Amino acid sequence: MTVEKIETDTLVVGAGQAGVAMSEHLTKLGVPHLVLERNRIAERWRTERWDSLVANGPAWHDRFPGLEFDDLDPDAFAPKERIAAYFEAYAEKFNAPIRTGVEVKKVIRNPDRPGFTVDTSIGEIQANRVVAATGPFQRPAIPPIAPKDDNLHQIHSSQYHNPEQLPEGGVLVVGAGSSGVQIADELQRAGKTVYLSVGPHDRPPRAYRNRDFCWWLGVLGEWDAEAMKPGTEHVTIAVSGARGGHTVDFRKLARQGIKLVGRTGTFANGKVTFEQDLAENIRNGDANYLALLDAADAYIARNDLDLPEEPNARDLLPDPECMTKPTLELDMAEAGINSIIWATGFTTDYSWLDVNAFDDKGKPQHKRGVSTEPGVYFVGLPWLSRRGSTFIWGVWHDAKHIADHIATQRKYAAYKDADQRDADKISDIRDAKKESVA
Ligand SMILES: Cc1cc2nc3c(=O)[nH]c(=O)nc-3n(C[C@H](O)[C@H](O)[C@H](O)COP(=O)(O)OP(=O)(O)OC[C@H]3O[C@@H](n4cnc5c(N)ncnc54)[C@H](O)[C@@H]3O)c2cc1C
């Protein structure tokens, strides 16, 4: 192993989209920095997402301002490999100082001098500042209700790649956010029996009156919302760019053959129970969908836009039997279920960041990414500054704010008062004299 001693002003940990955006803004502001990535640039898009995944937003939207997906139709949805290649190309564009294959193992504040000591897989680094860009979705979160049963094949959605990876038999997909619905759909289309456990969700229309929902959320100011509406903390968003993009419609999924159930309750003696909340969750999702159509119509009228009307968008299919006569308990063997996919989200892991920037539950404490520990920053976290903060386009703006903060702090640190400036002048004159004598 090579052991190096490196010094830098700002160390960015992680080279996903957040790390690349940080590096671009720091470069523009002339801040010396280094980005360390333990794997490859945009690694999670390469290995921690399923094979058929495409971006949830269209190519014109899900990108940084400085580069377009020039090989894609602007309304198309970039495949995940293309997204990884995009960030690699983006980093090359400004020659980002990224070192891949280097893991940051520990960061501690120096007790006796400014800055941080960073222990990495290639040795020690001294940095004045550290930006944690290690992702919003780091550690798979599987709820404690998961049964301890060796006969069941259980994986998290981040480990799902394709239907062939699962054993023969039926699947229970727990969680109906964008990951759960897309995985359930793919498995059912591959011929599997699929149960989908549906919790509270928003389901914006994929598009309405010729505009993608990303556009609607933008013009309606929803991406800029600074905090979740109270009571919506556990509401996920169900959208899909798969097969050219479509609105997630649970009644359609039921008609297609997916067996919908409410939130998963308990597992015991080979049986699984479900809450009686399926119909309520679907109706609340409908309300969210219809509210967006209303807001869109009002926006069009207010701005006198000439966009084609779409009255059929308000037609909902009749309630399927799984809504009117919900399944509340299933014998998994009888139902033929031998796999469970937990599409239940992620948590973070900051075990490597040993600084005073967390609350007693380990949650990062920060204002728009500027943490409570001077010199430590977070970027890419959910709701860091607004709803868009975890998304490709949104993280770029948060990174800009953080880079500005760093540049401003450097300016303060570089300030010299009149005495210091005079002392500098005298020392410059002395140096010049020495040079001319020599
Ligand atoms: C299934 C799924 C689909 C998504 N689809 C979209 C979409 O279509 N559009 C959109 O805008 N957003 C989407 N997102 C949200 C978001 O864009 C991604 O989660 C994105 O990967 C977040 O980027 P990031 O740079 O913040 O973090 P990450 O991509 O997680 O990058 C963090 C990097 O840090 C590295 N790292 C971690 N710890 C260390 C360490 N100790 N030392 C060195 N390196 C380390 C990791 O290897 C990783 O490469 C999706 C998320 C998921 C889960």
Describe the protein:
- It is a single chain.
- This protein is an alpha/beta fold and 438 residues long.
- The chain contains eleven helices and 24 strands.
- It folds into two domains: 4-138 and 348-414, FAD/NAD(P)-binding domain (3-Layer(bba) Sandwich); 141-342, FAD/NAD(P)-binding domain, CATH 3.50.50.
- A hairpin with a 6-residue loop joins β4 and β5 (116-120).
- The model has no long low-confidence stretch (mean pLDDT 96).
- The structure holds flavin-adenine dinucleotide.
- InterPro entries: Auxin_biosynth/cation_transpt, FAD/NAD-bd_sf.
- Its EC number is 1.14.13.-.
- This is Flavin-containing monooxygenase.
Distance between the termini: 45 Å
CATH fold annotation of the largest domain: FAD/NAD(P)-binding domain
Superfamily (CATH H level) name of the largest domain? FAD/NAD(P)-binding domain
Put simply, the count of helices is 11
Low-confidence stretches: none
Which distinct ligands sit in these coordinates? flavin-adenine dinucleotide
- What is the name of the CATH class of the largest domain? Alpha Beta
Cα-based radius of gyration, to the nearest Å: 25 Å
Helix content: 25-40%
- The domain count comes to 2
Based on Cα principal axes, name the global outline: globular
Instruction: Tell me the major beta sheet.
Output: 8 strands, mixed
Keywords: Monooxygenase, Oxidoreductase
Enzyme class: oxidoreductase
Protein name: Flavin-containing monooxygenase
InterPro entries: Auxin_biosynth/cation_transpt (IPR050982), FAD/NAD-bd_sf (IPR036188)
